[in-house]
Amino acid sequence: MKKLVLVMFITLLSLLSLSSNAQITERTIITSGEGKVSVAPDMAELNMQLQTINKDGNKAKTELDAQLNRLLVALVPIGITSTDIIASTLQLNPQYEYQNKRPQFVGYRASRNVTVTLSRLGQLNQVMETALAVGIDQLGRVNFKIADESHYKKQAQQQAIDQSKNLAKHLAESYDAALGPIVQITYQDSDIHYPRPMNELRQSSSMRGDTEPGVYLHDNITFTDRISVIFELIIEQ
């Protein structure tokens, strides 16, 4: 009999403990925070294409190699070295033109895509003018970037954390409560919005003349971070 009473007593204490824990768990507050940092780009990637056509495939390749070498030499005084340049594998394809509905061999088209990374955005106009001067007339799109992405990612994340904490504290105090321990943190997502790339540029008379250098307007790079958190609420009885 005594054992039965003891078991019932222990069971009752367990149920009371579970009920108490359930009440504590239910007393929570959920808030979300968003951080957003907008920064002007300080770097750029300029894409261009080198190409030449010759009926002799070896000569087409040789001409293309010479074009690339002229570009590399011309960019050195600007501060651009081979480590800042990516040149894809050479493509060599036969080219035909249709005459009287029959294909006529024109020659071999040799081409290479080249990407130049500019560590300083102010170099952009000078690099473009230099490329045009050595005979590269197909300048592709320009991608704008930022050097220290991790720094601004952390800034946006900290803003999201601070916003979720401050909002939770404000709401809790408004309802005569206080924040307890963190129950759960949900990292929602992060995002980097880059400026729209500049469209393809080709050599024109205005770019070759004695005109003022062009001004390139661009949007900022925006870093966004989102986080959600659940706090326990402490309510004085």
Q: Any chance you could write out the topology, listing elements then pairs?
A:
Layout: H1 2-26, E1 28-39, E2 43-54, H2 57-75, E3 85-87, E4 91-99, E5 102-118, H3 124-133, E6 138-145, H4 149-174, E7 178-193, E8 201-202, H5 205-208, E9 221-234
Antiparallel strand pairs: 1-9, 2-5, 2-6, 3-5, 4-5, 6-8, 7-9
Architecture overview:
With 237 residues, the chain is an alpha+beta fold. The chain has two domains: 26-40 and 148-237, Translation Initiation Factor IF3; 43-145, Protein of unknown function (DUF541), domain 2 (Alpha-Beta Plaits). The protein is built from five helices and nine strands; from the N terminus they run αββαβββαβαββαβ. The strands form two sheets. Strands 2, 3, 4, 5, 6 and 8 form a six-stranded antiparallel beta sheet that branches. It is elongated. It starts with a helix and ends with a strand.
Task: State the gist of this model.
With 237 residues, the chain is α+β, with helices and mostly antiparallel strands. The protein folds into 2 domains: 26-40 and 148-237, Protein of unknown function (DUF541), domain 1 (Translation Initiation Factor IF3, 2-Layer Sandwich), CATH 3.30.110.170; 43-145, Protein of unknown function (DUF541), domain 2 (Alpha-Beta Plaits), CATH 3.30.70.2970. The protein has helices at 2-26, 57-75, 124-133, 149-174, 205-208; strands at 28-39, 43-54, 85-87, 91-99, 102-118, 138-145, 178-193, 201-202, 221-234.
- CATH fold title of the largest domain: Translation Initiation Factor IF3
- CATH homologous superfamily annotation of the largest domain: Protein of unknown function (DUF541), domain 1
CATH class of the largest domain: Alpha Beta
Mean pLDDT: 84
Tell me the overall shape.
Answer: elongated
- Separation of the first and last Cα atoms: 38 Å
Beta fraction: 35-45%
Helix and strand string, N-terminal first? HEEHEEEHEHEEHE
Q: Summarize the amount of helix as a percent range.
A: 25-40%
Low-confidence stretches: 2-13, 18-25, 202-211
- Architecture of the largest domain, CATH level 2? 2-Layer Sandwich
